[in-house]
Write a structure and sequence with these properties.
The protein has 3 domains: about 70 residues, Uridine Diphospho-n-acetylenolpyruvylglucosamine Reductase, domain 2; about 120 residues, Uridine Diphospho-n-acetylenolpyruvylglucosamine Reductase, domain 3 (2-Layer Sandwich), CATH 3.30.465; about 60 residues, UDP-N-acetylenolpyruvoylglucosamine reductase, C-terminal domain (Uridine Diphospho-n-acetylenolpyruvylglucosamine Reductase, domain 1, Alpha-Beta Complex). It is about 25% helix and about 25% strand. The strands form 6 sheets. A 5-stranded antiparallel β-sheet has the order 6-7-13-11-12. The chain is globular, with a radius of gyration of 19 Å.
């Protein structure tokens, strides 16, 4: 049996995203260590756009796909090490897993990650947060391989310019690993916090649907979901994608939906909210690739 090549051509991306939408990647590689990462990056034509795909939440690839290299971190990038007050994790580690492993080891402060369906790398790139906490508050440092660089370097939070749901990291930058500060906690107490967060999210967010989490960033002092809800837009749809009737900042995809449907609904709602309230919401979802209405 022939081994599967490290870098694959025209691999379907939809199954790797929470929306289950979008076309293929021109090149795709799942890498297990730094050596494979280097091989993957050097196997595509110079100048090829590169991006890391975590757990596929908070992202929509266009129906035409992505004409670049998509890298998925596996192997050693999925390791977690709990050492006293510091918890280290690879860039591909799922945030709920990180939260549960830290809590079980009696290390607190990362419980908020249990409800975020992303990866450590995505958390650093987007300063992920919730329930009154965010990555900036717990991140000690991160090992980053910047776009075009040959070696990864340790970077401090101040150098990453972590702000609300953003940083200065771009698609071509790769979070190899990160270290987090924690505090001592009784594992039973931490487990209680995990259960409370999980319960809250089940009660207030639309589980069992195809979505990408929060669609818009919250404007200062307000909530995007409340603004959309007040305009009576719950249930409003474009194509086969609609605004959740449970939480207005979640857009759910029905069978037959396309990535273009998501793009159209997001920008339609943004326009409606802006014209009605003067608040122009900023999408938290990342759209990758070409979309028909992108110039409108």
């Amino acid at each position: 049996m022939c081994a599967r090549p490290l870098v694959q051509r025209n691999l379907a991306l939809a199954p790797l995203t929470t929306y289950k939408l979008g076309g293929p990647a021109a090149w795709f590689a799942e890498v297990a260590d730094a050596g494979e990462l280097e091989v993957a990056r050097s196997s595509v034509p110079e100048g090829t756009q590169t991006m890391v795909l975590g757990r596929g939440s908070n992202i929509v690839f266009s129906d035409a796909g992505f004409d670049g290299l998509v890298i998925k971190l596996g192997g050693e990038f999925l390791e977690v090490d709990v050492a006293d007050a510091t918890v280290s994790a690879g860039g591909g580690v799922a945030l709920p897993r990180l939260a549960r492993l830290a809590a079980a080891a009696g290390r607190g402060g990362l419980e908020f990650y249990v409800g975020i369906p992303g990866s450590v790398g995505g958390a650093v790139c987007m300063n992920a947060g919730g329930h009154g906490a965010d990555t900036a508050a717990v991140l000690l440092d991160a090992r980053i391989l910047r776009h075009g660089a040959n070696r990864a370097h340790i970077e401090q939070p101040a150098g990453l310019d972590l702000r609300y749901r953003s940083s200065n990291l771009g698609d071509g930058d790769i979070v190899i690993s990160a270290r987090f500060a924690t505090t001592p906690v009784d594992p039973d107490v931490a487990e209680g916090r995990l259960r409370a967060i999980t319960r809250w999210r089940k009660e207030h967010q639309p589980g069992g649907t195809l979505n990408a989490g929060s669609v818009f960033k919250n404007p200062p002092g307000d909530a995007a979901g409340r603004i959309i809800d007040d305009l009576g837009l719950k249930g409003y749809r474009r194509g086969a994608v609609s605004i959740s009737t449970l939480h207005a900042n979640f857009f759910a995809a029905d069978p037959g939906a396309t990535a273009e449907d998501v793009w159209q609904l997001v920008h339609d709602v943004r326009r409606r909210v802006g014209e009605a309230t003067g608040v122009w919401l900023e999408p938290e979802i990342r759209f990758v690739g070409e979309f028909r209405g992108a110039s409108s």
